[in-house]
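Recap from last week: sequence in, structure out.
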Amino acid sequence: MVRPTFEHELKEIHLDLLKMGTMTEQAIDKAILALKKKDIELAQKIIENDTEIDNLTEEIEKKCAIVIATQQPLAKDLRLIIAAMRIATDIERIADHASDISEITIKLSKFEYIKPLVDIPKMADITKEMLKMALDSYVRSDLELSNKVINMDDLVDDMYDKLLIELQEIMSKDTSSIPQCINFLLVIKYLERIADHSTNIAEWVLYKITGKLKHEL
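Predicted structure tokens:
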């Protein structure tokens, strides 16, 4: 039997999650744009907006807890709520990393970059696409799309390894570049973690659909 209140509460959680995902996709985009243009004002806005995303996470967690306590969902509905809570946590951490990159932008803004920023934006584009695809797979309950996201994580890991080697070589040839290279190493580490969290989201979508956790797939 359809419970109107329950359906309404699930829809609210769903919409909050999508709003949070859209805000976070934009935060990644703007964080890399600010890094490329050394735009301190934009970087500062991303840091400030992170609070709104944190608040949305708490709101989703509260709504999920209320639904579990008052509606006592079973099986598929319970899996959906658990997945929504875990996905909200992963999105919130992705937003944190966009904020972390923005803090680095502010630190580096006064310096000439040691090399043109080409590969880092490419890596960011792929991680942002992974997040978008993971959220699409959530909306459509699309197993195939979730698996594509999981497979893309290897591509980001390869890009991370190549950039790591390149930055190590630059530091070995020019010790004055070490402070800046360390900051770029942090940026690529944050991007690699964004890919990991997007992979987690895809795995929670698989759980929502199949009831299987990642180690059971």
